[in-house]
TrEMBL record, chain A:
Transmembrane segments: none annotated. It is found in: Cytoplasm. HAMAP family: HisH (MF_00278). The lineage of its organism: Bacteria, Pseudomonadati, Pseudomonadota, Gammaproteobacteria, Alteromonadales. InterPro entries: Class_I_gatase-like, GATASE, Imidazole-glycPsynth_HisH. It comes from Neptunicella marina. One of its GO terms (cellular component) is cytoplasm. One of its GO terms (molecular function) is imidazoleglycerol-phosphate synthase activity. IGPS catalyzes the conversion of PRFAR and glutamine to IGP, AICAR and glutamate. The HisH subunit catalyzes the hydrolysis of glutamine to glutamate and ammonia as part of the synthesis of IGP and AICAR. The resulting ammonia molecule is channeled to the active site of HisF. Signal peptide: none annotated. The keyword Hydrolase applies. This is Imidazole glycerol phosphate synthase subunit HisH.
TrEMBL record, chain B:
IGPS catalyzes the conversion of PRFAR and glutamine to IGP, AICAR and glutamate. The HisF subunit catalyzes the cyclization activity that produces IGP and AICAR from PRFAR using the ammonia provided by the HisH subunit. It catalyses: 5-[(5-phospho-1-deoxy-D-ribulos-1-ylimino)methylamino]-1-(5-phospho-beta-D-ribosyl)imidazole-4-carboxamide + L-glutamine = D-erythro-1-(imidazol-4-yl)glycerol 3-phosphate + 5-amino-1-(5-phospho-beta-D-ribosyl)imidazole-4-carboxamide + L-glutamate + H(+). It comes from Neptunicella marina. The keyword Cytoplasm applies. The active site is at D11, D130. It is an enzyme of class 4 (lyase). This is Imidazole glycerol phosphate synthase subunit HisF.
Length: 196, 257
C-alpha cells in the first residue's frame, strides 16, 4: 500500500510519519503532484496558521491536486481545517472539500488555546472510529474549530461542542493529533489505513 | 472534559537525564530514549525535556536525541533549553518536538517570543519562568541562567509582570518553576501559583516541589493549574504514575484514563 504525507512545509510532519511507521507501514513525504495522486491513502498534516499553510500549498501548486483527490485522505489538526470551505483564522479560503467552516473558539471563558487531552464521542459509527469508545481521550492543541454539523464524525466539548472529526466522501479530518494520542491515536491511524 | 496533565520533566545534561536539588549537584538518572518510552507507556500525558546546560554555556548543543524521542513516543513532548532563535526552534520542531520552551533567551530578547509565535503559532510556544521568592523583599523575582549556578542572575522582572508580558507577546503556555521548592519535595508553591493563575489566561503548568500524591491534588484543586510537572518523584520511583492517576480521579480531578 502506497501511503503519502503531503509535504505542507508544516512542522508536525515527522511526528505523523513516525506514528505511521510505528504501525509497521512505509510512508513517503512528498509535494510531487503525481506521487500524491498515485497514493492509496493520503495524509494532510498541518500546524500553524491557516493562511500561512494555504499559502504554502498554493506556492507548491498543490491546491487543485489536494482538492481533487479520489482516494481516502486524512487531514490532521490544521490539515482538517484546510479541508473546509473557509477559516476565520486570517479570513482564509480553504480547499472546500468538506462543506463546513472554521470559527474561533469561544470556549465560554475557558482558557485558550484548547490544549491537552479531551474526550471525544464518535457519531454515526464511522469506520474511522472502529473500536474507539465514546469518552476516549485524544490530544488537542487548537484555538479554532469547526462546529458540530451533518459532516461531524466525532464531537468534543470545550466550553461549547465542536467537531473532533469531520468527513465527506473520501475526505476525513481530525482536529486532534492522532500521532500524539497514545493508543487511541494509533488505533485511529490504523483504522484510516485499513478501513477507509 | 479537558484532563489535567501529569508531566514528567527530564532534565538533560550532556545527553543524559539528570536531576539536582535546587538546581545543583546533578546526578545522572539514565538514558533519554528508554526513559521517555517508559514514561509514555506508564501513562504520562506529556513530557518535557529541559537541556539545562544549553543556555548558560553558550555552545551549540547536540539535539539529535529529539528525533530519536519523536520516533518512539506517542504522546506530546516539549523541548527546552538553548533555543535562542527562530531557526533553533524550527530545527527542533522539524525533528518532531510538539512544542519548544524558551526561558533565559526570552529574557535577553523578549522579541523572540513574538517571532516564535508569528512563525510557528501560539500552540507550540511555551515560556518557562524560573521564579524565586525573596523572603527579605517579599517579592517574586524572575531568575535567568539557572542551569549553571555560577551564572544565575536575578532579572529586573517581577514574576507577575513577566507572566503578563509573555502572554502579550504570544506565549501559548507558561511553565512556572518555583525555585524555592525545586527538588525538595515539600509540595508545590500553591500561593504563588494561584497568584500567577489569576494573571494567566493560557495553560499554566506548575513546576517544583512535588513530593507526594496529595501535592498534585492540591495544586490542581487549589491553584487551578492545567498541568503539574515533576521529576524526582517519578525518576526515583517515589510515586507510581498509574497509582497517581487513579488517586487523582478518586479525588475528583479530571485525569486521562
Amino acid at each position: 500500500m502506497e501511503l503519502v504525507i503531503v509535504n505542507t512545509g508544516c512542522a508536525n510532519i515527522s511526528s505523523v510519519r513516525f506514528a505511521i511507521e510505528r504501525l509497521g507501514y512505509q510512508v513517503a513525504v512528498s509535494d510531487n503532484a503525481a506521487q500524491i495522486q498515485a497514493a492509496d491513502k493520503v495524509f494532510l498534516p498541518g500546524v500553524g496558521s491557516a493562511n500561512a499553510a494555504m499559502s504554502q500549498i498554493k506556492q507548491k501548486g498543490l491546491v487543485e491536486v489536494v482538492a481533487k483527490l479520489t482516494q481516502p485522505t486524512l487531514g490532521i489538526c490544521l490539515g482538517m481545517q484546510l479541508m473546509t470551505k473557509f477559516s476565520d483564522e486570517g479570513n482564509t479560503d480553504c480547499l472546500g472539500v468538506i462543506p463546513t467552516k472554521v470559527n474561533k473558539m469561544l470556549a465560554d471563558g475557558l482558557r485558550l488555546p484548547h490544549m491537552g487531552w479531551n474526550q471525544i464521542t464518535p457519531v454515526n459509527n464511522n469506520s474511522l472510529f472502529e473500536g474507539i469508545a465514546a469518552g476516549s481521550y485524544f490530544y488537542f492543541v487548537h484555538g479554532f474549530a469547526a462546529p458540530v454539523s451533518e459532516v461531524t464524525l466525532a464531537s468534543c466539548e470545550y466550553g461549547q461542542p465542536f467537531s473532533a472529526s469531520i468527513g465527506q466522501g473520501n475526505y476525513y479530518g481530525v482536529q486532534f493529533h492522532p500521532e500524539r494520542s497514545s493508543e487511541a491515536g494509533a488505533r485511529l491511524l490504523a483504522n484510516f489505513i485499513q478501513n477507509t | 472534559m479537558l484532563a489535567r496533565r501529569i508531566i514528567p520533566c527530564l532534565d538533560v545534561k550532556d545527553g543524559k537525564v539528570v536531576k539536582g536539588v535546587k538546581f545543583r549537584n546533578h546526578e545522572i538518572i539514565g538514558d533519554i530514549v528508554p526513559l521517555a518510552a517508559q514514561y509514555a507507556k506508564a501513562g504520562a500525558d506529556e513530557l518535557v525535556f529541559y537541556d539545562i546546560t544549553a543556555s548558560s554555556d553558550a555552545r551549540v548543543v547536540d539535539k539529535s536525541w529529539v528525533s530519536r524521542i519523536a520516533e518512539v513516543i506517542d504522546i506530546p513532548f516539549c523541548v527546552a533549553g538553548g533555543i535562542k532563535s527562530v531557526e533553533d526552534a524550527g530545527r527542533i520542531l522539524e525533528m518532531g518536538a510538539d512544542k519548544i520552551s524558551v526561558n533565559s533567551p526570552a529574557l535577553t530578547n523578549p522579541e523572540l517570543i513574538t517571532q516564535l509565535h508569528d512563525q510557528y503559532g501560539q500552540q507550540c510556544v511555551v515560556v518557562g519562568i524560573d521564579s524565586y521568592f525573596n523572603e527579605q523583599t517579599g517579592q517574586y523575582q524572575v531568575n535567568q541562567f539557572t542551569g549553571d549556578e555560577s551564572r544565575t542572575v536575578v532579572t529586573k522582572w517581577q514574576t507577575l509582570d513577566w507572566v503578563k508580558e509573555v502572554q502579550q507577546r504570544g506565549a501559548g503556555e507558561i511553565v512556572l518553576n518555583c525555585m524555592n521548592q525545586d527538588g525538595v519535595r515539600q509540595g508545590y508553591d500553591i500561593e504563588q501559583l494561584a497568584k500567577v493563575r489569576a494573571a494567566c489566561n493560557v495553560p499554566l503548568i506548575a513546576s517544583g516541589g512535588a513530593g507526594k500524591m496529595a501535592d498534585f491534588s492540591e495544586v490542581f484543586q487549589q491553584a487551578d493549574v492545567d498541568g503539574a510537572l515533576a521529576a524526582s518523584v517519578f525518576h526515583k520511583g517515589i510515586i507510581d504514575m498509574q497509582e497517581l492517576k487513579a488517586y487523582l480521579r478518586s479525588e475528583g480531578v479530571a485525569i486521562r484514563a
